[in-house]
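Usage

Read records sequentially. Each one opens with the input sequence:
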Amino acid sequence: MHAKRFAGLITAAIAGLALTVGTAQATPSNGVAAKIISKETSPTYEIVRAEITIQPGGSTGWHYHDGQVSGTVKEGTLSHFDSTCKSDGTYHVGDHITESSGPGYVHIGQNRGTTPVVLDVTYINPIGKPLSEDVPNPGCSFQ
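and closes with the structure output:
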């Protein structure tokens, strides 16, 4: 297994877990489901482990994370793009992914394959913040 760095993860992963609603211009997820596996809380952070599934043709929508995100691809192939509209990674079964946090790391995760993408994801998130923040498409020709 080799490690790859993300400017943000899916979120497919996250769109299904988002705790707030984005603006009208935000790009919603499509074909994403999330199952919470565990959740622990400290005075300042919560640690959430989830299984995220992105169906073929599905997408996380454009978003960023307030906290840290890392995970492993369990099934399928995840295509990831940053806000410059360029691919910043293609992740296969066994690949480990990490994402930077904050609004400077807008990204989208897509399943361009024919089988579901399944991710085992851990979020280390500030208390009171959603797991992902939806944002408008940064000007890319795809969503």
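Summary fields computed downstream for this record:
- The radius of gyration is 13 Å.
- Residues 12-15 form the longest helix (4 residues).
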